[in-house]
Design a protein that fits this description.
- Two copies of one chain form a homodimer.
- Chain A is an alpha/beta fold.
- Chain A has three domains: about 45 residues, lambda repressor-like DNA-binding domains (434 Repressor (Amino-terminal Domain)); about 120 residues, Response regulator (Rossmann fold, 3-Layer(aba) Sandwich), CATH 3.40.50; about 140 residues, Rossmann fold, CATH 3.40.50.
- In chain A, the strands form two sheets. A six-stranded parallel sheet of chain A has the order 2-1-3-4-5-11, with helices on both faces.
- The longest helix of chain A has 18 residues.
- Chains A and B meet through α4, α5, β2, α6 and α11 of A and α4, α5, β2 and α11 of B.
- Chain A binds a DNA duplex through α2 and α4.
DNA sequence: TTATAATATATAACCGGTTACATTTCAATA
DNA sequence: TATTGAAATGTAACCGGTTATATATTATAA
């Protein structure tokens, strides 16, 4: 592999000049520029990104930290992040924490010694001290989806509470009399907000008490189990609002095994709008997050922070859409 | 951020000694070692990976090129790759080509500027000349799943033909009389092999002709459409072997809309064993690939090539497992 | 023609590690 | 005690870029 010194020698100039040509900085005579460009072409020279990174403390890479890449929500988002990153000459480091705090910490530590130019973080495991650490290192940061209660970073979420309300109201409208909720991971803010949306609608109903809320994780397996618990605790259940689509898919399966007909005996609403929710049988009514858009936005905001040093935190709270499908079409 | 020189100064030794302590190389007196380790701890020093990379001619990053990150097969694999990478101090660059050759080429070009230590590539769009380019640059490479016909690189696939045979034989065993096949992307070798497995079983049957084979892409949408075409072309159809699970999910949905009862009127077998195939209603009988294991293996083999300069190509052809589920449980 | 300013290019330090080679320390042997 | 070689540590070059500063070249004004 040719280095900048090879190019300089071949073109009969100094390495500084070559560097200037490559980066379009400073002033260069036209002929000099052409000579250098020819030498670059002849030697098929490409700058070594590691050396460049060491010198400018940049890597042209951003880290995308996700809790579980196997939840389809995240690949959809990752795709958007990656699209914008690529268009702007950045690479995306995939960091999957598997919902484990130790892994998150590992990543935060190792990323800071790698000149990662920015981080998009999506993890409920994050704590204020971690953010502080990244901030003190000056690493641009965008938080997504699962964010902390309050913070002074750019963050992107959706109107979770409103979405929860929309979902639950819809169940009421289609005639459900006993509506349960399966909440996602206990300590995530988005799950909590969705639950409050549910409570906004049902808390004044005479039958309601907290036993109608089941606690799950954001997974099919967990949704399946908790749905079954709810069925045996409340046989009269006729509607469930699930904190995400994976849980809804689990509930669907539980209902099928329990012999409950969907939507007539049990109506189900999910949240997220992952592609899979369209594709199940029956398809699942859901509250759609603008997943791709969120990923794009996150990456664009991160780029702004990186390239414009524009560091005032912005908090985005995007709208969600109600999507009617078979699981509530009575 | 503390540098190695800070540590050296604090411990009262030279930077060479610190480096030796960090990397466990050469000979160091026990007390010296302890002093240095204490200084490292005091300063919360972590070696700068970029500087280290420049010296070692490494970036400690590998690229994972996938065709469509939204097909759950790939996140499952990515998770495995990432697990092994992380354990060994490497980062994973996510490269999603969206099944487009222009993006693949972009990636190959940009990655070849000494940006990554190795590439795991999973794309049917790759051509011999691309591989040659990477080879001439000396970048370690592992091909996965969708590989070229013949090549001299390490590759990891499964016994696709045998899997196709197993799937089709199973449909015969449960009593299917007219078995169709929905094949995946036309020019991928794995789809072709699965189709040949199907043909091995049915080609001598009196009813068989090529109109029983539908060509789809590896997606739910495409499986759905092609299944409907098959239903109208061959109303007597009572079994389908689908080239992957996404296609099978599409077929499931088509059957549901068409009013065909599964499994009694139509039995369906998929391929891959993505998590989702367990979770549909009904669950889908499938040919399970060892997805996680394949990802691990790919990354381990890549590491061998990177760190041991062990470059003789190995071709792995892993076993698949038959998994019985509801979609064929008559 | 000479002084001066503007433009173009070169030199050398630096980013933060690794490592070949040189030097020092110290125990074992003559 | 002097000699020798192994063990421990230090010095300095190097990886391949960027860039501040110095220097050379050219254009402009006096």
């Amino acid at each position: 592999m040719a280095t900048i010194r090879d190019v300089a020698k071949k073109a009969g100039v100094s390495i500084a000049t070559v560097s200037r040509v490559i980066n379009n900085k400073g002033t260069i005579r036209k002929e000099t520029k052409e000579t250098v460009q020819q030498a670059i072409k002849d030697l098929a020279y490409t700058p070594n990104m590691v050396a460049r990174g060491l010198s400018n403390r940049r890597s042209y890479a951003v880290a995308l930290i996700v809790p579980t890449i196997t939840n389809p929500f995240f690949p959809e988002m990752a795709r958007a992040v990656e699209d914008i990153a690529r268009e702007n000459g950045y690479n995306v480091l995939l960091c999957n924490t598997d919902d484990r705090r130790d892994r998150l910490i590992d990543y935060i530590d190792s990323l800071s010694s790698q000149y990662v130019d920015g981080i998009i973080i999506n993890s409920h495991n994050i704590m204020r001290e971690d953010l502080q650490k990244l901030k003190s290192l000056g690493i641009p940061l965008v938080m997504m989806d699962r964010v902390l209660q309050d913070h002074d970073f750019t963050s992107i979420t959706v109107k979770n509470r409103e979405g929860g309300r929309m979902a639950t109201e819809h169940l009421v409208e289609v005639g459900c009399k006993r509506i349960a909720h399966i909440s996602g991971l206990e300590d995530t803010l988005n799950a909590t907000h969705r639950m409050w949306g549910y409570r906004d609608v049902v808390s004044n109903m005479p039958w309601f008490d907290p036993s109608w809320i089941g606690m799950a994780e954001f997974s099919v397996q967990s949704g399946y189990q908790v749905a079954k618990e709810l069925f045996s605790r409340h046989p009269e259940i006729d509607g469930i609002f699930c904190s995400n689509d994976l849980i809804a898919i689990g509930a669907l399966k539980a209902a099928y095994e329990w012999g409950k007909k969907i939507p007539n005996e049990l109506a189900i609403v999910g949240f997220d709008g992952i592609d899979m929710s369209r594709l199940t049988v029956p398809s699942i009514t859901t509250i759609q997050q603008p997943i791709y858009h969120m990923g794009q936005l996150a990456m664009k905001e991160l780029l702004k922070q990186i390239e414009e040093r524009n560091n005032e935190p912005k908090k985005f709270e995007l709208n969600v859409d109600f999507v009617l499908r078979e699981s509530t079409m009575r």
